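Let's study a protein:

___
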Amino acid sequence: MNNRIEHIDSIRALAVLLMVMVHAAATWGPPPSTQPSFLVYLVSGMGGLAAPLFVTVFGWGCTRTQLSQSQRIKRGVFFIAAQTGVNLSAPHLFDPFSPGVLTLFGLLILLQPLWLVPATKKPNRSHLPFLTILGFSLFLTIFLSQWQGSIEWSARNETSSASQWIHHALLTGTYPVLPWVVFASLGAWIGCQEGKQITFPQNNTTLAFVLLGLVSCALSFTYAWSTDQQWALPTGKALLTFFPANAMFLIAALTGVCLLWLSIQNIRLNGLAPLGQRSLSVYLIHFIPIGLLYHIDEVNAFTFIHSMGVVVIYTLVWIPIAHAWGRLAPRMDAEHALRWLTK
């Protein structure tokens, strides 16, 4: 793995760790009746940044890979097919043919001429495509939110026909192209800066962007508290919702992703590099134990402490697994298979 940027591997590792944590918590986490605590809020907050960070670093990676049309089609099909494999390995979470984050990756690869090429064609003006996509996404989520589909998880997950698959993949699913392309576009903008030690520019403009996001989050939280409303929920009635991704979620998630990226590029996290180099592989296989053992909390009647312990242990165990994987079978992973497939 030559010419890799160390902190990018750390960001990939953090993204996949958060994704593992989200799925583990959805399977073995505390029941909804559990009294909220700081740990629950921390897991929920960090979990909410898992997919945005995952998609952003994917967008960054797209700027580093020159693909022909044939290669793009092969990679797109690979990711879309891989999503079905993921769904089948975790039937308690997903409908067999429901589009998910890997479907999003596949479609974004196929649609690169629309969102990536405008940024990479003129790198010094790559902020314009990002701001255009951000503006359109905010307009969609504020004024055309009815096009984003139901607030019910079952309705967003169930896929019983080809037309419903298309609707879910583009607009109404769990990770539809619109508005999730905004995170890939942010990653493309970061990638166009061509930084090595510092990939995310640390200047007054970017810091002002982050500050504006933080102020927006603080104001919305204050408004929710003063009017006795829910500020954030995965789905339902709240100012910030993940399913569907509304305007406040986009602002909060973009702010969180920027803060994480800025922090990690200034901190050496060497121990996460092997995991970051195999983030796709870990994402694909971490569902297998989850799918096989998702009933263990019901059989053993997990308490809050048990649930959180299992979630944390299952998340962190992938770090030593990735280290062992890199030593014992460095070329046997999905990353090498994908490169071989699209040579």
Summary: Residues 30 and 305 are 8 Å apart (CA to CA). The two ends are 17 Å apart (CA to CA).
